[in-house]
Amino acid sequence: MGTDEAGVTGVRLASVVGEPTLELEAAGVFVAIGHRPNVAFLGGQLELTENGFIKRTVPFRTDTSVAGVFAAGDVADERYRQAVVAAASGACAALDAERFLLATEN
Ligand SMILES: Cc1cc2nc3c(=O)[nH]c(=O)nc-3n(C[C@H](O)[C@H](O)[C@H](O)COP(=O)(O)OP(=O)(O)OC[C@H]3O[C@@H](n4cnc5c(N)ncnc54)[C@H](O)[C@@H]3O)c2cc1C
Question: Is the same domain home to 52 and 90?
């Protein structure tokens, strides 16, 4: 909430568990997004962790529950979720995919 003149003056919080709407005074807002892994597009084809992230099935690698499918980035990272970690895991997934293809090549 706020005005052009005053800027942010408060926030109105809507409960997702049925509690009454709450208004708090605030002079600023930090919008935190990205806390829920975006996995709906998978349609249940990959195993997930109990918190809804793509489950990696081999320690320190990007393998998933489906052979030949590799997971990188925040969607498979419950712990760090930082840009440099996501980028590095993308490189790992590419290498894992290359090795998978070489090993299965006829
Ligand atoms: C508010 C905020 C602040 C942050 N600050 C920092 C920071 O200071 N330092 C830091 O290192 N990290 C920070 N992060 C974390 C960083 O943004 C992430 O770790 C990083 O972006 C993860 O990269 P990613 O490629 O895994 O996912 P994303 O960057 O989320 O990229 C996933 C992409 O996939 C696309 N996508 C989703 N579904 C589909 C689909 N079905 N088909 C095609 N495309 C699809 C999305 O549109 C998106 O472009 C911050 C994150 C947030 C939310």
Answer: yes
